[in-house]
Write a structure and sequence with these properties.
The protein is α/β, with parallel strands linked by helices. The chain has a single domain, classed as P-loop containing nucleotide triphosphate hydrolases (Rossmann fold), CATH 3.40.50. The protein is 35% helix and 21% strand. It has five helices and eight strands. The protein has a four-stranded parallel β-sheet with strand order 1-8-7-2, sandwiched between helices. Strands 3-6 form a two-stranded parallel ribbon. The protein has a two-stranded antiparallel sheet with strand order 4-5. Strand 4 and strand 5 form a beta hairpin. Helix 1 packs across helix 2. The radius of gyration is 17 Å and the shape is globular.
Length: 170
């Protein structure tokens, strides 16, 4: 459905976005990071999902993370580690965030390497990988730390690229 409200995942579902998609892919292939900003509901998520799907078919590992409701770097790390472990594209990263002891019992993953920090997780990526962080404005409270971590990852790991999306906030 061309004008449905759900995010699109295929180029043929989008209208008039070929130039944007091609530009983003060129930037990623060149090793650059991309920021997509704009008003809510204009198609940022759809463009990102199409780009990720096309890059995955070209050999990149891809990860999409929706940051709506994510308010800390610890939560972001948990989501990224879970996505990496869930995806068959990330078989060389077998990680866990920490040992959880609580009302639900003890969770231990045999052979999983603990990832105590987001930076350690990002530096452990050894293949060309594109990570899309959608609605990055929701991490505003953690933005100084996130910017330092991303800056370190940019300088230290050329295999990783980011696409960051955000809506204008007043």
């Amino acid at each position: 459905m061309l004008f449905g409200l759900y995010p699109k995942e295929s180029r043929k579902e989008l209208f008039g976005r070929d130039d944007v998609i091609d530009y983003i892919k060129r930037q990623i292939h060149a090793g650059n990071w991309v920021v997509i900003a704009g008003q809510r509901m204009i198609g940022k998520t759809s463009v990102v999902k199409v780009v990720l799907n096309e890059l995955a078919s070209e050999g990149f590992r891809t990860m999409y993370v929706n940051l709506q409701g994510v308010d800390s770097l610890k939560t972001l790390l948990k989501i990224m580690v879970n996505e990496a472990n869930r995806s068959s594209l990330f078989r060389d990263i077998d990680a866990s965030v920490n040992l959880n002891i609580g009302p639900l019992g003890i969770t231990i993953r045999k052979g999983a390497r603990p990832m105590p920090t987001l930076l350690e997780f990002l530096l452990s990526i050894r293949r060309d990988t594109v990570i899309a962080l959608d609605e990055v404005q929701d991490l505003a409270s953690a933005s100084p730390q996130l910017l330092k971590i991303l800056g370190n990852a940019y300088s230290s790991n050329p295999r990783i690229r980011f696409i960051l999306t955000g809506s204008y906030v007043a």
